[in-house]
Amino acid sequence: MRFDSLTIVTPVKTPKHLENFVKLNEWLLKPNLFIVIDSGGGEIIRQYCWKYIKKDMSLWEARKLGYAEVQTKLILNLDCDVVPPENYVKEAYQILQEDQADAVSIHFQPIYTGHLEFGVSLWKTEILRRLYDYPPKPVEKLIKVGKSEWVLAFQSGFCECSYMWAKLISSGGRLETLPYRAKHLK
């Protein structure tokens, strides 16, 4: 299914299930603009790409690089271990095209800790480029985890998903959540 105003951005780094990802998402990857930032192990996906960038970097640096290459109004974040439902993509695309939201989220299957998923989300390109600055600067506060184990607060509470949804809402952005669940490849 082709979406004229959409580019898919997928960072890849030592994927475990890339063949399944390609097979189950071919309906989406093949007809649409698809950018892959490959930090290792993503060569088999190259044939589907509009733009393929081979560069070793962190997940969030790869996302930023991919977002900078997008030339369409909308971005679909698509992690390389997830299969989104076709109806989610159709409905989210329509919501954004009709300017009813700035981003549309989805849940994983099963839902983990009640978080909305960022790795499978549709965004208006201009909004995502402006807001995306993950990871947040580490918080100086240390949190005790065990008898003698301490971690920075950022490591124990600011996942990319919650961080980006909070950033969108606090900026005055509009978030829509659809009642679909993506399949996480195991």
Helix-strand blueprint:
Blueprint (H helix, E strand, L loop, with lengths): L5 E7 L5 H12 L3 E6 L12 E4 L4 H11 L4 E5 L3 E2 L2 H12 L5 E7 L7 E8 H7 L10 E3 L5 E3 H5 L2 H11 L4 E10 L2
Parallel strand pairs: 1-2, 1-4, 2-3, 6-10
Antiparallel strand pairs: 4-7, 5-10, 6-7, 8-9
Structure notes:
- With 186 residues, this protein is α/β, with parallel strands linked by helices.
- It has a single domain, classed as Spore Coat Polysaccharide Biosynthesis Protein SpsA, Chain A (Alpha-Beta Complex).
- The chain is 31% helix and 30% strand.
- The chain has helices at residues 18-29, 59-69, 86-97, 125-131, 153-157, 160-170; strands spanning 6-12, 33-38, 51-54, 74-78, 82-83, 103-109, 117-124, 142-144, 150-152, 175-184.
- Strands 3-2-1-4-7-6-10-5 form an 8-stranded mixed beta sheet, with helices on both faces. A two-stranded antiparallel sheet has the order 8-9.
- The radius of gyration is 17 Å and the shape is globular.
- The relative contact order is 0.18.
